[in-house]
Amino acid sequence: MNGRRIGADFRVVARSYFRNPIALFFSLIFPIILIGLFGLIFSNVGGGTVTLPVVNADPGCPFDPLTHNTTTYCQEFLAALNGTHVVKVDVVSMPVATFASWLGQKDYTVGLVIPPGFGENYSQRLPANVTVYSNPQDAATSGTVFGAVQGVVNGFNLRAAGGTPFLGFRTSNIGSPVYTYIDYLIPGLIGFSILTSPMFSMVDVTSSYRKEGIFRQLSLTPLTRSEWLISRVLWYVALTFVTAAIMLGAGIGLFGAHVTFTFGLVPFLVVGSFFFVSLGMLAGSIAKTPESAALIGNIITFPMMFLSGTFFQVSSMPPGLQAFAHLLPLYYVIDGMNQVLLFSNTTQALYDLAIVLVGSLIVFALAVRFFRWRDE
Amino acid sequence: MPAAIEVRGLVKRYGPLAAVDGIDFDVPTGTVFAFLGPNGAGKTTTTEILEGLRRRTEGSVRVLELDPWSDGAALHRRIGVIPQDFRFFEKITPKEAIEYYRALFGTDVDPGKLLAQVELLDKIAARFDTLSGGQKQKLGLALALTNDPEICFLDEPTTGLDPHARRAIWAVIRTLKREGRTVFLTTHYLEEAEILADRVAIIHHGRIIAAGTPNEIIRAHGRPARLRVEGSPELAAYLRTTLGLSAFAEGGRIDVELGSARDALRVLNAVESSGLPWSAFETTQDTLEDVFVRLVGQMDDGALKSEAPT
């Protein structure tokens, strides 16, 4: 093992990379696009409050005697909705007949109408229905509003029946209370780039350098296979640091993410890169041609790309898929980053790290074993 | 001084097929050795075994007194190799490539000087993927020299190069020899071997069918030297009867086969004393290429056409 040779090889890799516009795009621009894209897609889900336009068509809504006649039943209903903190009521005045088309024009996907006689009927314990307008395409927002309205309606029914609530619940974020959707996305997307950037290029490089005789050429120099592999590992570790920094920066800059760089992330960036550089080289070494290498690389990469908690939480998947996800090495990289970045769960993070590290050493040994400079 | 390369009873089998079938040769230190043979004769296999890139099946091989396969790492520090169709990292310039090799070998060469030697100085900052075939080959040669090698292996170094580039490579090979290095050359161009090589071996079907200096091979396997005179069939008949040498007339030219240099003087005297008209004369001799084509052709019963060297 010789540092000068590893350094020289590292410089060649770095130069080749910086002179390749496609590689640069995938390392520097693509992470921003990923964060931007997924940030925008998920920004409506569970994030903050939903504005709910309301038409109150019950002008004669009676006062509630329990409040010493200072608020009407309708006002109380709307206040209770605001009290859920998931919707923010915005009372608009217009005829009920034009409300639906107005919602469409203004790009609202939800709306609520309090019908005439709502307060009177409630005080008489007679049936009354509020109407919730929704757009089925925006199921997430509709669901939020249905839940809020349902909750308030139940509360009003309980009160009318003279009951006392004894079951309740509080909400709290998993992790720090200030975290939002984007904070939960970042570890997965960093994991995505730890996987894809070395896998795609190492599989390609390993098989095509062999075909073009570049390995043969290198075998005639004092550079060893381990040195060659280590210089690649170092390069992808460096690249992963840059990518992770870009993603954190984009998350914070574009979407106000609260996660920050922590040193607990470092072992996962290092060991994760180490694992996938080795795996890419192993796949490229086993394959006979660059074409079959690409195929093997894709077979390994694609399931991991989607099922390891990159874009979707593993816990939201069906049990069978969850069991499968636990077999994927990237799952442990992403889970470990989640633990250190969001949940401060060092024990679980160390457990994840140990799995990835052991896996890396095995894959590295296999890669060096199957990787040939020269023919028998 | 021990030979730079010593090969005894070398065999390489791929399954039942013997690509190299028991060959012996020596390359004395400081000489240029040309290894010739049609495609598929076992040239590249032999060369790769000498370079430590391929394992032999049988026999003994010593290169700089090392076993190329088991002592490969030690050997590679002392030899330089350019393979056929040299390829390198596409986005790297010749200067950077030499700096890279310099760091790998831990040597101290000046990239500019080395590139000037192979006439590639004008492309010192051009990326590899913009170089022509000849320029790539020159870079391969420069890289093979980065570690100041004792033996240079050049596998068809001038294939596909234009005449100017070819002569530039020849000049480098002559310089290498002058510097006391041993050169092991495989080539398709028999003319190249004849010009550059001290010794030549011709391999065919895995066996060496001729070896020695180019002149020795021509003397041993070539047709006799010939004197060519422009003259009539009558003159040819006269020469045959007076001299007892074989003389053929064709198209106004007469070829007389010479047994020795003295025969040439006898032929010229007889021409002059014949009183028959004649004009220009010249002597001709088989080239290495003629010998090569004939030797290989005899073995293959003329089945070589498509592979014959050009």
- Number of structurally distinct domains of chain A: 2
Share of residues in strands of chain A: 5-15%
CA-to-CA gap between the ends of chain A?
24 Å
Task: Please list the strands of the largest sheet of chain A in the order they lie side by side.
Answer: 2-1-3-4
Mean pLDDT of chain B: 87
What keywords describe this structure?
heterodimer, A: 376 residues, mainly alpha, abc type-2 transporter like fold, 2 domains, four-stranded mixed β-sheet, 14 helices, 65% helix, elongated, B: 310 residues, alpha/beta, Rossmann fold, Alpha-Beta Plaits, six-stranded mixed β-sheet, 26% strand
Would you give an account of this structure?
The complex is a heterodimer of chains A (376) and B (310). Chain A has 14 helices and 4 strands. Chain A is mostly helical and 376 residues long. Chain A has 2 domains: 3-43 and 180-370, no CATH class; 50-160, abc type-2 transporter like domain (abc type-2 transporter like fold). In chain A, α3 (73-83) links the parallel β1 and β2. The longest helix of chain A has 32 residues, at 181-212. Chain A starts with a helix and ends in a 6-residue tail after the last helix. Among the domains of chain B are: 5-78 and 149-220, P-loop containing nucleotide triphosphate hydrolases (Rossmann fold); 224-284, Alpha-Beta Plaits (2-Layer Sandwich), CATH 3.30.70. Chain B has helices spanning 43-51, 72-76, 94-105, 111-117, 133-144, 163-178, 190-196, 214-221, 233-243, 261-274, 288-300, and strands at residues 5-14, 17-27, 32-36, 58-63, 79-82, 151-155, 182-186, 199-204, 207-212, 226-231, 247-250, 253-257, 278-284. In chain B, the strands form 3 sheets. In chain B, strands 5-6-7-3-8-9 form a 6-stranded mixed sheet, with helices on both faces. A 4-stranded antiparallel sheet of chain B has the order 11-12-10-13, with helices on one face. Chain B has a 3-stranded antiparallel sheet with strand order 2-1-4, covered by helices on one side. In chain B, 43% of the residues are buried. The chains are: A mainly alpha (376), B alpha/beta (310).
